User: What shape does this take?
Amino acid sequence: MRDEALKTLMKGRVAEALVESIFRHARYYVARAGRESSVIRLPREDSDDLPDFLVWRPAENLGLDLHQLFMVEVKYRSDLADFFRFGGAEKLANAKQRWPDLYFVFVTDHPAADRSCFQAMCLRDYTPGEEPNLVDLHQLPALGIYPRTVAEHGALAQDLFAPLGSQQPSRRDAIAARRKVADRHPGA
Assistant: This one.
């Protein structure tokens, strides 16, 4: 069990590093803002749960010294469908109350067919109680990230996550196995 927890932690750190690299390739300045950072407090004092990153770059076409600033939360999830089926939507709703303009970037080594390892959404566009609409990271026009950058990082993600593969079944598999045992041994 300890090995699995370590692998999960490592996958989360790798996911954060990959997302940070994507933003840097898109010419963003990147600062860690989460628990691991040196940023102690943002203006909101009633929350210790800060986004992972603040990213910014000069605003284009304004002719002034202005910057676009985005808050980004990164989550590694092997199975995105399981995440949303087992409490993920509630986490999004809670985060939206604190950070309504937060961008979530989900990193997975098991994307659905024709999907990227980097899927994202802005909580501004999320309605709690509804199915989250994730798009590939490069499909969020406000961020201006190139598809090739995302594809290159996706290939790297697959290479990095492969040796950290998990022997632990997904939640869906674990629940199915428990049901199978319960069906064989009623009343146990």
